[in-house]
Amino acid sequence: MTAETAKDDWPLEDRGVAYGDGLFETVLVRDGRPLLWEQHLARLARGCGVLGIPLPAREALEAPLVEAGEGLSVLKLILTRGSGGRGYALPIPSDPQLRWRLSPFAPSAQRWRQGVRVRHCRLRLGIQPMLAGLKHLNRLENVLARAEWTDADTAEGLLCDSEGRLVEATCMNLVWQRDGKLETPRLDRCGVAGTLRSVLLERAPIHEVDAFPSALDGVEALWLGNSLQGLWPVARLDDAAGTPIRHWTIGPAHRRLQALAHAALGYPPVT
Amino acid sequence: MTAETAKDDWPLEDRGVAYGDGLFETVLVRDGRPLLWEQHLARLARGCGVLGIPLPAREALEAPLVEAGEGLSVLKLILTRGSGGRGYALPIPSDPQLRWRLSPFAPSAQRWRQGVRVRHCRLRLGIQPMLAGLKHLNRLENVLARAEWTDADTAEGLLCDSEGRLVEATCMNLVWQRDGKLETPRLDRCGVAGTLRSVLLERAPIHEVDAFPSALDGVEALWLGNSLQGLWPVARLDDAAGTPIRHWTIGPAHRRLQALAHAALGYPPVT
């Protein structure tokens, strides 16, 4: 019942590959210390609760950190339900499997400074409240959305749900400022509730809203962020065909929220 | 670029486990011959086209069959995009990985004869037309739906989409007869288009319809089926709390469609 911590391969019949039956976290690590660690643990625990997968002991989740050297790295943790069960039925008891990998990492300081170009994606996310917010292993929608562009100048793609509401980007959350107020899409129907988003919601007056893409017409600033890259100001928004539909000049308003995010991640403020 | 055929483990970083980035097929095999093989190959090819995964050569997909002995077995094929890519972005070129397992199999003749008890599930399937019909590896919805009951008397659970339309059961398709006409849910928004369903659509006058659960109130017969189990008549339908809401007496109308399905699978007719 305790998750096996290992770096080796996945068993042939692991339900992680058979059904995407599991969860993952990608964690920024500086000099062996994980950033936003409580937020990552909280999301993983919530996912384990929803899926009914026993949560590994904190010690098992932290064990890989001893192998992280100086500087920045990314710890990717994957937790699956393990093998067993008849078809979709759950194995009882389950034998969860934990695997991890540490990789060197460097964020894009140029994107912090200059901002990024993003586009709307054609794909719309299915609505599944039971899985909303979780970082689970069923990510084909993200894969298909990310395949909508190949040019290196486009940094991210914005995703709406099947009813047309803005949700997130393919691997980042959204925040915007409208009439001086900060807003981010509610994630109770679909999307991944990022750990950087959680921290920003705690530390800044950001309102969770239902919003359609037209809401972006009037915003003073738009950001994308996650716990690895920090916060990117958006300088240009394209439609799904790659035609520009909005430009923003990166200014002091952008830098204020960015500074808050970067403080949480130990990144420098951008001036 | 050719898929590696093997029975060993999955590489640690395979996108099959990271994202559920792949497809599978479960094939009934009799005396080394796969049943509904052209339908399985066609669905796999369609999935490869949608996901942009190179389709393995037919010879690679058929290679495991030489290990099947006499009698009935199930061949499970899993094809993933392999490792690589930056995050969700596709690796170019991709290095697809094919794994398989043969297992002995016996269908439930008692369920053929007596029919089954099924229930409505609470979970509703997200609407994702891009993935509809495919047997892809993102199956957490099926896992969660199957976890809604644990009693052995309940054979399957019926699933609706997020807008309330009937779609399928957790691992089977639905057919019913109403006013003498055969109907099955359209699968252009979500659900898996089963190979037995494909064969029945070719060989019987079955209409693909949009239908809500209330449509079942007036049907003369309801069946669940897939290419392993054949066709089960439904004798009792429960609500999501397990309370019976409909009973059917299994009769000649049930047996006619069942005989057609069983002929396609080499199963005996049921009298």
UniProtKB/TrEMBL annotation, chains A, B:
Taxonomic superkingdom: Bacteria
Cofactor dependency: pyridoxal 5'-phosphate
GO CC terms, sorted: cytosol
SUPFAM superfamilies noted in UniProt: D-aminoacid aminotransferase-like PLP-dependent enzymes
Reactions mediated catalytically: 4-amino-4-deoxychorismate = 4-aminobenzoate + pyruvate + H(+)
Pathway terms, separated by semicolons: Cofactor biosynthesis; tetrahydrofolate biosynthesis; 4-aminobenzoate from chorismate: step 2/2
Top enzyme category: lyase
Gene3D superfamilies: 3.30.470.10, D-amino Acid Aminotransferase, subunit A, domain 2
A Pfam short name: Aminotran_4
A molecular function (GO) term: 4-amino-4-deoxychorismate lyase activity
NCBIfam families noted in UniProt: pabC_Proteo
Subunit-level organization: Homodimer.
Family stated for the protein in its record: Belongs to the class-IV pyridoxal-phosphate-dependent aminotransferase family.
Name recorded for this polypeptide: Aminodeoxychorismate lyase
